[in-house]
Amino acid sequence: MADQEQAVLKKLRVEPGEKIRLRDRNPRDKSLFGDEQETKAATAALAKDIDTLQDRLYAEGARALLVILQGTDTSGKDGTIRSVFNATGPLGVSVHAFGPPSRLELEHDYLWRVHAAAPRRGTIGIFNRSHYEDVLIGKVHKLAPEKVVEQRYDQINAFEKMLAENGTTILKFMLHISKDEQKERLQERLDDPAKHWKFNPGDLEDREHWDEYQDAYEIMLNRCSTKWAPWHIIPADRKWVRNAAIATIVKATLEEMDPQYPEVSWKPGDFKIT
Amino acid sequence: MADQEQAVLKKLRVEPGEKIRLRDRNPRDKSLFGDEQETKAATAALAKDIDTLQDRLYAEGARALLVILQGTDTSGKDGTIRSVFNATGPLGVSVHAFGPPSRLELEHDYLWRVHAAAPRRGTIGIFNRSHYEDVLIGKVHKLAPEKVVEQRYDQINAFEKMLAENGTTILKFMLHISKDEQKERLQERLDDPAKHWKFNPGDLEDREHWDEYQDAYEIMLNRCSTKWAPWHIIPADRKWVRNAAIATIVKATLEEMDPQYPEVSWKPGDFKIT
Question: Which residues does the UniProt record annotate as the domain Polyphosphate kinase-2-related (chains A, B) (predicted)?
Answer without folding.
Answer: 36-260
